[in-house]
Amino acid sequence: MGNKINVAIIGCGNCACALAQGVYYYRKAKETDFVPGLMHVNLGGYHPSDIRFVAAFDIDKNKVGKDLAEALFTPPNNTIKFCDIPTTGVKVHRGMTHDGLGKYLSQVIQKAPGQTADIVKILKETKTDVVINYLPVGSEEATKWYIEQVMAAGCGLINCIPVFIAREKYWQERFAEKGLPVIGDDIKSQVGATIVHRVLTRLFRERGVRLERTYQLNFGGDMDFFNMLERERLMSKKISKTDAVTSQLDYKLDPENIHVGPSDYVPWLGGRKFCHIRMEGRAFGDVPLNLELKLEVWDSPNSAGVVIDAVRCCKLALDRGLKGALVGPSSYFMKSPPVQYTDDEARCLTEEFIAQQPGEEKPPASNPEA
Asked: What one-character DSSP code corresponds to residue 275?
C-alpha cells in the first residue's frame, strides 16, 4: 500500500475548491478525535493528508494556466473560504469542452484558447491514481469522453455528477475489462437535501405512515444552479434525485405526486443552498400527517468530506485489485449507485468494505456482475 493518493480533478469549480481546502484543513486531524466534517479520519490506513493533487483540467480562460491553488479561488467560484490552499505546483490544463459549457455558463465563462491537453499523457506522467469528475450537470458527452481517457491512463474514477456511469452495465464491464474501479454516480452530500429526504421517507415507511405526495425544491447562488436554469440539462439530475428518494419505498408513487429537483438561481445566496421539503401522508386511522422542513447549507463543503472518503475507498480498491463498480461505497456516497440500499445498509456495507483485507472482498463490496 502506498502512503499517498495521487488525484486529478476534472472541473475546477466550487466543489473542487471545497475539497482542496478540506484536504489542507484536516491535514493534522487526530484519529482519536470526533472531527466535524469527516466520517472517517483513518480510512483503511489512509489519512486525508495522504491525498495529493497532481493534475487538474478546466476550460475557463481565467483558470487555465494558473496554479491550482489560485484557480480554485478565481471567480465565478464563490464557495466559502475556510482554509488557505498553499501553492501546489500543479498547473490547470486546458480540458475538453464538448457539452460541458451550456447556454447560461457560456454567458459567464469564456473558453481558454488553444488545443485540449493530452489528458492520457498527463495522467500517466503524474502517476494519477484516482480521477474526480466535477463537470457541470448535463455534461453527458464530455463525461464519456473523459472516461475514455481515464481508462486509457489506468486510473480509478469518482463520478460526482449525474451522468450515469457506475450504475450502467456497459460502463461497469468496461471498467472491469480494464481492471479499474469506479464509484458513482452523483455525489450525495453529508447532510444534504437528498439524504435528509431519503431518511425521512424511510422513517415514514418504517413507522407505518403512507407517503402520498412530496416535493423537494432546491435553489442557490453558485454556477451549478445558474447552469441548471437550462432545463434541458436537468433530465439525469431529476432522475437521480427522484430515484434516490423513491428507492426508499416498497410501493410506487404516481409521478404527479412527487417533484424533486433544482428550482431556481438566486445570485445573492452565493455558495449557499436552500432546500424546502414537504411530505404528505396518512397515519393511524388514515388521519393526515404532513411534514415541512427547510435546510440551509454551503453546498460544496457539504459534499467534500464524502469525496475524501470516496477517494480513499477507490485507492483501497486499486490496492486490492478490485475492478468495476464498487457497490458498497457507491451506495453510501452516491445518489444513483448500481444498487440502492437504505442509508443504514449502505453505511454497513461501506464499513465492511473498508475493514476487509486483500483477497477477502466479497459481494457487494464490488459489483458481482462486473
From this structure: E
pTM of the model: 0.93
Q: Rg of the chain over CA atoms, in angstroms?
A: 20
Residue 32, SS3 per DSSP: coil
119 grid coordinates: 489528458
Under a CB-based contact definition with an 8 Å cutoff, are residues 286 and 240 in contact?
Answer: no
Strands annotated E in the chain: 5-10, 51-58, 92-94, 130-133, 156-159, 181-184, 210-220, 258-265, 272-282, 288-298, 324-325
Strands (E), 118-248: 130-133, 156-159, 181-184, 210-220
Per-residue pLDDT of the chain (370 residues; tens, 9 = 90+): 458 999 999 999 999 999 999 999 999 999 888 888 899 999 999 999 999 999 999 999 999 999 999 999 999 999 999 999 999 999 999 999 999 999 999 999 999 999 999 999 999 999 999 999 999 999 999 999 999 999 999 999 999 999 999 999 999 999 999 999 999 999 999 999 999 999 999 999 999 999 999 999 999 999 999 999 998 888 889 899 999 999 999 999 999 999 998 889 999 999 999 999 999 999 999 999 999 999 999 999 999 999 999 999 999 999 999 999 999 999 999 999 999 999 999 999 999 999 986 555 454 544 444 3
Q: Which amino acid is at 365?
A: A
Among residues 119, 130, 126, the alpha carbon closest in space to that of 180 is found at 130
Separation CA 137–CA 115 (nearest Å)? 23
Q: Residue 4 and residue 6: Cα distance in Å, rounded? A: 6
Pairing of strands 210-220, 272-282: antiparallel
Helices H / strands E in the chain, number of each: 11, 11
| Amino acid symbol at 286 | D
Q: How far apart are CA 234 and CA 236, in angstroms?
A: 6
